[in-house]
Amino acid sequence: MTDPVPSFEEHSKKTMTDLIEFDNVRFGYGDGSSFELRIPSLAFAADQHCAITGPSGCGKTTLLHLMAGILQPDEGQITNQAVTVSQLSDQERRAFRIQKVGLVFQAFELLDYLNVLDNVLLPYRVHPGLVLDDPVRERAESLIRSVGLGGKERRSVRQLSQGEQQRVAVARALSTRPPLVLADEPTGNLDPANKVRIIDLLKSAAEATGSTIITVTHDHSLLDRFERVIDFDSLGDA
Amino acid sequence: MLGPLYLGWKYVIHHRSKTVILVAAISLTIFLPPALTLLVERGAENLTSRAEATPLLLGAAGSPLELTLNSLYFNEAMPAGLAFASMDAIDPGLAGAIPLYVRYKARGFPIVGTTSSYFSYRGLPLLDGRPFALLGECVIGANVARRLDVGVGDTVISTPESLFDIAGVYPLKMSVVGVLSPSLSPDDDGVFTDLKTTWVIEGLGHGHQALDQESSPDLVLSQEESSVTANAAVVQYNEITEANRDSFHFHGDDGGYPISGAIVLPRDEKSGAILQGRFLDAGEVQLTRPDAVIGELLATVFTVQAFVLLIIGLVGVATLITAVLVFILSIRLRAREFLTLQRMGAASGSIFIMMGAETLFVLLTSSLIAAVLLGLSQLLGTTELVLWLSR
Lengths: 238, 391
What we know:
The complex is a heterodimer. Chain A is built from seven helices and nine strands; from the N terminus they run E-E-E-H-E-E-H-E-H-H-H-H-E-H-E-E.
């Protein structure tokens, strides 16, 4: 019943110069829409938190999904942490994602029937490649404390405010200590005061686990908190 | 595998109201058809075994079913009354007879007027005490003793038929002199007493204070050679005791007193056949074979059972279709959750297990509950279980 853990390391390049590299990538949804994303060349360095901005519908989320291996390019190659994810099978990409990439969503996407701790430990419960043991539990509890939710580990996420829910989502994204965290409009559903808090929290928590953040946002007030800002229109043809 | 099952369990627990309704509906759907079959089979077995142990019944002409149900199962359906003297029609050379008068009740339990031969015929040993021997004594079944919490030395009171009828049947306090061992038959629910005691309950016999000019000059209005006329202040006894037992007496010929039926025990098969032949055109009385009557009754019951099972089956199919619909809707409502898990990188097998976990838990729990209920039905008897559940 369990999936085998694919050895996506076979697809690794022998050297790692950048965290993520796009090489002549072309992507279209193929559902009759005219949308097409072309990225001749793009690289993201490790330890350099990056914000991608641009108008709505320009393809920011699509770019993020291509990085994560959720979507596959029609042409070209995407290398993530020295692994050519565009050459991996669906199973292999899932295994890669859950171990190497943390995801934060705009609408938090927490499971409302679980408490805070179970939500943070969710990746360990849905993939056989991740082993849930006592050190992992202790790390998750420490992570929850670090995002300011100490003492609320057993509380249902439905009892939390939106800001607190996004903190749980941040802790969940970092629970596997992934080298890369991809955040899709993580402050889109928050009030202005919480927006800054969540971004600062995300950065500090990511730095504590050694993760690099790439976030999509169209909130220009947050851009100065990132080392690198990419205006989507400058990437290529979309 | 454990991770997705854990998440499935958490989902089921979180939506407990929906889960409980689904489990209850599916459990009943699984439980009812075999339970009904078991109930009917057990009932048929009980009815048949008692009917087969009773060769012939003598009763007034009328419904053989009422006669059988009243005489064998102490059912409330009262057959037409039969004169005690009708038993004389049974040739003692061919068969013996045990009279029965089942009409009155004591706190909901039937009072069975009979003779002490009834106990030896039915093979009913006494758990405590002795058989009734004197007027006003009774022997109670095991259920009566347990439910009324009475035993030897206590008393039970017959229930008056009409509370406000001053000329009607008065309650009679009977002394319990014996308790029967449990027999898992209608005898467990009987209050057995002498036939004459039931006639006292009916008012055909009575006891009262002495009526003569010497001892009760205030009560006697007139006294002739064979009759005494007294005023309304005469005290009638509603309990038969050592002190007043001798004052109880019957007026008239006891051959005309009523019984509800009589168990007829032929000496052999041939005697039974001869007796049945004699009663074919007996006019006001009937001699019936209880096993044939119960056989006809069960044929009807089995026909009804088949229809009921068909209806339960159809309701069950409708319930299962509804349950499948609920599961499908549940999965559709959780589509966003599964999409998020897929994006996070959840293994496809894990998502599949999570999708099926709710169905799995509900079906397993329902099957378990249905199996436990069926097991209890086997152990306790379905009737007892239904009574227990309905408390």
